[in-house]
Amino acid sequence: MKKSLIAIAALSAGMHAHAFDLMQPSLNDTSNLVWSGHISPDTDTVVSALLAAHIYGGTATVPGELNPESKFVLEQCGAVAPVYLDNYQGKRLGLVDFNQQTQLAPGMDEANIVAIIDHHAIGGNPVNTSQIVTLDIRPWGSAATMLMDRAKQLNIELPQELACAAIGAVLSDTVVFQSPTTTDFDRQLVDAYSAQAGLSNINEFGEQMLIAKSDLSHIDAATILTMDYKNFEFGGKKVGIGVAETLNAQQLIDRKPELLLAMQSYKQEQGLDHLFFSITDTKHKRANLLWVDPSDQQVVERAFQSVQGQDMLSLDGVTSRKRQIGPAIQTALEQ
Ligand SMILES: [Mn+2]
């Protein structure tokens, strides 16, 4: 029995581009299946959709415009961007890189979710599925790392451009292995795929990526606010947290008045209870947190420390929304 199952898997992997994954039977029917990450897509979201579609079949999609870093990575690697979808109605859904209801794209029906491949906590307001879905959530640095591992386990070869883009996604989410979310798995899989990716100098590639996303001088404040942005529901409150990771934090700190105005109108437009924005200094590993009004400030005080008399809070050693900023705000709102 065992032998024949292995034979089927091997045959399938050899004959088709996609895996017949015995552990994930809901993925063996790829009809009308699309892979997508969260809205305000980042590089991990974009590349993980490509990787999942390559491994399992189905179509890689993206629910929004690519950010400058993602464009840089795809271009450097020679990879083709996922298909942009403005409405997901009627699609069977493989979600990558998120599990929160607040991050679903228009038309995404939770009843149509067949798989979730993610590396985020199932807290706040996760999706509510009516059927059993394939669920793979690991505390690793990026969803792309998990998919590189799946490809390896399933003996699915990644073409050079996808191996390269996958490494870009890991470097993006882990801020070139500097984020506290980084694990040994991220380092190992990047190492394992670097030759296939044709990348001889991983750190240099990472540096180029950081530079590509650091110059925001030509981008208006409202766009900067939502380029790397996530909605959450914490303690029944609608919370938005935007981030700009940059080597040149001062460039954005100088634009604080402009950013605060953009935040004010965005908070109102979206009917948010709280809105926060971090100018994340990737050079000095420091978050510079902005908020809109006294009620947001109270949350910041509870989450971090006294901020009396300040209009921005600099947090040394804080670089991760997922590991540090988000959980602190969640705890402050749920206690
Ligand atoms: Mn991610």
What does this molecule look like?
The protein has 335 residues and is of the alpha/beta class. It has 2 domains: 2-210, inorganic pyrophosphatase (n-terminal core), CATH 3.90.1640.10; 221-334, DHHA2 domain (Diaminopimelate Epimerase, Chain A, domain 1, Roll). It has helices at 2-15, 43-56, 68-77, 143-153, 160-173, 184-197, 202-214, 221-227, 249-253, 256-270, 294-303, 321-334; strands at 33-36, 59-62, 83-84, 92-96, 113-118, 134-137, 229-234, 237-246, 274-281, 286-291, 313-316. A 6-stranded parallel β-sheet has the order 3-2-1-4-5-6. It has a 5-stranded mixed β-sheet with strand order 7-8-9-10-11. Strand 7 and strand 8 form a beta hairpin. Helix 5 (160-173) runs antiparallel to helix 6. The chain is globular, with a radius of gyration of 20 Å. Residues 1-16 have low confidence and may be disordered. Manganese (II) ion (MN) binds at residues 44, 97, 119, 142-143, 173.
